[in-house]
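Re: the multi-chain job from yesterday

Posting the exact lines I submitted so nobody has to dig through the queue logs.
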Amino acid sequence: MTPLFYVIIRLMNKMEKALGELGHMDELAVQDSPVHAMNAGAKLLCTVIYILTVMSFDKYDLSGLIPMLLWPVLMFQMSGISVSTCFYKLRIVLPLVMAVGLFNPIFDREIMLQIGGVGISGGVISMITLMLKGVLCLMASFLLVATTPFDNICAALRRVHFPAMLVTLLLLTYRYVGVMTEELAVMTDAYHLRAPGQKGIHVSAWGSFLGQLLLRSMDRAQELYSSMLLRGYHQHFHYAPVKPFRSRDAVYLILSLLFFTVVKFWNLSEIIGMFVTR
Amino acid sequence: MHMADALLAPAVAATMYVASGAAAGVSINKLRKDDEPSKLPTMAVTAAVVFAGQMINYTIPGTGSSGHMCGGMMLSALLGPYAGFLSMIVVLAIQCLFFADGGLMALGANIWNMAFYGCFVGYFLIWKPIIHSKWFGEGKSAIRKRIIAASILGCVITLQLGAFSVVLETSLSGITELPLGAFMGLMQPIHLAIGLVEGLITAAVLCFVFESRPELLRDVNEVGAGTLTAKRSLKATVGILAIVALVVGGGLSLFASGNPDGLEWALFGNADGGYSTNMGLDEENFGVSSDVADKAESVQEKTSFLPDYAFPGSDSAAGTTVSGIVGSAMVAGVALLICFAGGFFRKKKQS
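And the result, structure tokens for all chains:
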């Protein structure tokens, strides 16, 4: 993200920030790169297996986990998206992970590692492992969404027989999240202009503020349904043709899965370390 | 409460996906049978409103802090439990994919913790029974009170269940060294306060809908305003609730463990209870038996009128019960004082 993006985002209210993030993700997803060109199903499968592999590492296996960093970093480079782009989202992932992990050094004080005479306890190692897992999983899921348009993800879900009702609901909600958030952003701005210095919505307007939007939206939903019917909706959506599964997708899938298997069952850090220090 | 992938082991994440998937399957089948195609856009638009509505800051009077809305209870009150559950799944999926709020593999657990309890437990065990009950008498104002009671109770209870599930899932995954009891001690009280505020916000919005368009609240429609005769008066209901609170607060304290709490046990062990090897810390080295600590302990013994949750010199169960109730009231009082003090200082600072 450009520095200007950060400046603009600081001036926005919460909903405008969310809209900015949504818009930014959409922009990233339609770029052109080898990763963007890959089949959505292959990317989805790879991401799921990557996250499961990261989750399966033992809490003390920090050295074994570190090589897993290579895959998302490589993918980020290939996609032309800067790795730092996803770190903005760490503000959401890390608090609960840290809240849980910070207790580990207190309760697990057994020394597991000596570095230059300084003993490092198992709790510190498990805490760092936990945080690294959080960062790696975030990088992988961010990469999927940042390199695949949401329509393609939904189409891929349909291909693996994900229920049509849920996929249609996902697509419709995604479409309307932007509309509703924008409407609420305008309402929030209007409210704050009339109530300067007030931090949030006053208790007297708790019900009416969201309630009014809710009522308007439910009416709008009926209009939306009528317009869908006029366009020939028969409880099924027709998806735009998605990128087919080609031989390069198979190569990407096989190489990625091979890498995950190697890192999972062989401690690459230790092997490289032994090779260097021998 | 959104869990990240890092907090779960693959087996736990998969189990939660299966559980949430089963609930989603039942919901989809139920909606298919109902055959209301126009419901889908309504679900989508309402889910989008809830998604956006979760970003609104609601000022909590007298505290200066703000709260947020609870989605599950509101969606199930407006759309029914099955449609509400599917809408919540979609809200959580979009939060996870586009805002990194909750992990992709932890989505099953997040759906269970936030959507399942809110939509199914909240609807079938709290919302529906209360709305269909004879509480608060008859007429429009009685229904409004039932909506408020159901919203607050629903949000508080379902959030407690959700927080408990987070603790259980994280502990079963072997992620944290924090003992289960201590972890619960951290999570449950925080979510009690959050649930209360979320309940009030949900109640405010649903009351507004009830005033403006009561036909949108399906269960309220079924009950029909003004058609009920009072079975129990408001005074009697409040009295029953007060007795229930006393029985729960006081009665449960009788079963409070005689062992030290989880955090204390984990730090210092309890040789009498057979736990001699846990953290390996001893009280002397960690300052518990130091001069300062001994003096502080003697001061504490003199000033506390309910040492160790009992009347001084009393080992009776009655002492424990009274202490449980008094202690709860004191904690609530101190919490209120902190809230008001915070608000007071903030106001002073502004002026």
